[in-house]
Amino acid sequence: MSDSTAPKPDPTGSQPNGTAPAGNAPTEAPLAEAAADNAIIPASSGEEPESPVAEIATAPDVANQRRSGDPSAGGGSRLSLRNLRPRMVRWRRQLARVNEFEPILLKEDDATIRKRSLALRYRAMAGEKLSTLLPEGYALCREAGRRALSMRHYDVQIVGGIGLFEGHIAEMQTGEGKTLTATLPLYLHSLVGKGAHLATVNDYLAKRDAEWMTPLFEMLGISVGIIQTEDDQSARRKSYSAAVTYGTAKEFGFDFLRDRLLLRAQNRMQTEMLGGGDGGFSDSGDQIVMRGMHFCLVDEADSILIDEARTPLIIGSIEDNVRDQIVETYKWGSKHAPDFELDEHFEIDDETKRYELTARGRSKVRALPKNDLVRAMGLVDLYEYIERSVKVHREFLLNRQYVIRPSEKDPKIDEIVIVDEFTGRLAEGRKWRDGIHQAIESKEGIEISVPTGQAARITVQDLFLRYPHLAGMTGTAATSASELARIYRTPVVRVPTNRPPRREQLPSKVFGTLDAKFEAIAKEVAEVHATGRPVLIGTRSIDKSVLLAGMLTELGIEHEVLNANNVEREAEIVAAAGGIGKVTVATNMAGRGTDIKLADAVESRGGMHVICTELHDAARIDRQLIGRCGRQGDRGSYRQYLSLDDDILKGGYGQIKYDKLKNRGEANTGSADRLANMFHRAQRKVERRHFRDRMVLMHHEKERKKMQREIGQDPYLDTPD
Ligand SMILES: Nc1ncnc2c1ncn2[C@@H]1O[C@H](COP(=O)(O)OP(=O)(O)OP(=O)(O)O)[C@@H](O)[C@H]1O
């Protein structure tokens, strides 16, 4: 930590408000302007979480944005909702109070800043309200940022930070400095001594952001902990004991479950000891790692709180050696199944279609060679394994009942996907029960997915609902505002950009077929590429990214493909994507969290051009892609390409109407641009359906937990498999 008394020069050139020299004007000008006209723009009337979705969804700004069909609208626009004015006025007043501290803090040395921070902590611990401490706290944080990181929180960031402190989801455009903004509510909430968590999507981001912000926190006497997947219990305990802890939603969830299991085990031991008198309770030194859940700030809030919301975090109860034994026995079964003959070794019950070994079949099983793991399995179990394997060999055929393809989660691993016998379509995510699925995996020689057995389970949603104070940041929340407000009681606010955005939306183009669309896209890539501007093309699936890449190769355009198949090079590809003449084809969320920095000469040529090749099921994902260009006031442009055979039309209007549109598309030779709005309507229908599905699921889960509590069970530990 630096002891210098003189503050470090501010590379942003910005000065405290009111004392700003002329050169500072560009940095703070938009805020001054925006502040006068509602610095923060509500994306929904989330203040009334109880209000019906329609009311929220039709909040004027969202509605305007959708009417214009511009999924990137927002950010710097200045729209206002009359009924939310009081909140904005209050936040602006608080900003003014934060600013009042600045000239005073500027004159103080590092040691005094730290002392002030300690004094704030005492006051918070003594029970003073954090909202009273906010102006000085935020001013201290800003001053620490300026000295330790050479970054002074912009006024918009301070106002965004106030919104976060008050439990909002702040929508900030990519590149607007969410990492620095996060320090404000983290610092303030950490003062009460119960810990403040920042949850992000992966270990890498947790570590990177924590390390980047640590000098700021250290200057204020605030310790920082980082949770990484490989950490052991004692490292975790240490990280959680820090004032501020960075980690992933997943790790926070697992630690919560492990602690809960441990507490139950200890509780049981204690009860046994008290009851039996001779119980073996000993405090073996096992201690929980978390020290409660007080405040959590969720980065990439929409993806964690909505996309991942239903993801269950499960701690398995099957131990590794048992798992190995099960896997081995499946393999053993499928190896020997072809040697079993109908009628001689097994029979099939006409009614139940059950396979049953005959006496000869059973003695054959006993005589089969077995390794130690298989031998340790009970004989009755072995009969069942063989019966199941024989059934699978006779009845389940590759490319008829199922296909094999690379797993979406990990393309290096193959997986079995069931073919729906009625529709002939792939039944994504479905599995056969009673070991059939595993027996097929074994027959095909691919990794056997032994179920874990559940010892404890929590969904990401439940986890965050347990925090009494929750807030989030994201580039794209406005379109999910109603859902976030309804589930988490976290209203969404839009934070305007520090500098006005200069991103240009080019008119959407609609084609009859995918082929026609892709040809036009390739042509546009060639044209923009010739000017030296970088082009980023987003596709909905891996195969489409490959198709487009093939077309670009034919045109002789050098390019990079970024999809789930080459995640290792992700950061490298994204970092280079803003160079002169770069062309990058990416599937949706790829490259998240890495900044695309434009090469110097790119800005004067018009910045980056983004091409969206199809609408996604959620407008939010489209906006994420579009947000890649025109960052921090850079120039940039984007265009949406659509065709009448796009999946979104099927999802929105159903198969029959989709088939009609597709036929119309095939007959269509000219432009169909006038139909662009139809695609956005379809997208809204899909979004609404997904929202309804999620609400139904949430309702069922809630009921289940209620019932379990009523009968004295723990909904996280007594989980149905
Ligand atoms: N107040 C500030 N003063 C100077 N530079 C800043 C300030 N705030 C942010 N920056 C710079 O802006 C850049 C983007 O910051 P950051 O990565 O936190 O953005 P982000 O909003 O998280 O973007 P993404 O959505 O891509 O994750 C960084 O290089 C950071 O140094």
From TrEMBL:
Which HAMAP family does the record cross-reference, listed alphabetically?
A: SecA
Q: Which organism is it from?
A: Neorhodopirellula lusitana
Domain Helicase ATP-binding, which positions?
A: 159-317
Known EC number? 7.4.2.8
Give the region (Disordered) as residue ranges.
Answer: 1-81, 702-721
> Is Iron-sulfur given among the entry's keywords?
no
Q: Which PROSITE patterns match?
A: HELICASE_ATP_BIND_1, HELICASE_CTER, SECA, SECA_MOTOR_DEAD
Task: Pinpoint the SecA family profile domain residues.
Answer: 73-674
Instruction: Provide the primary localization.
Output: membrane
Q: How does it sit in the membrane?
A: Peripheral membrane protein
Which part of the chain is the Helicase C-terminal domain?
Answer: 513-703
Indicate which residues the UniProt annotation says bind ATP.
Q157, G175, E176, G177, K178, T179, D595
What's the short name of a Pfam family annotated to this entry? P-loop_SecA
* Leading EC class: translocase
Q: Where is the composition biased (Low complexity)?
A: 24-43
**Positions of transmembrane segments:** none
SUPFAM superfamilies per the record? P-loop containing nucleoside triphosphate hydrolases, Pre-protein crosslinking domain of SecA
Give the protein's recorded name: Protein translocase subunit SecA
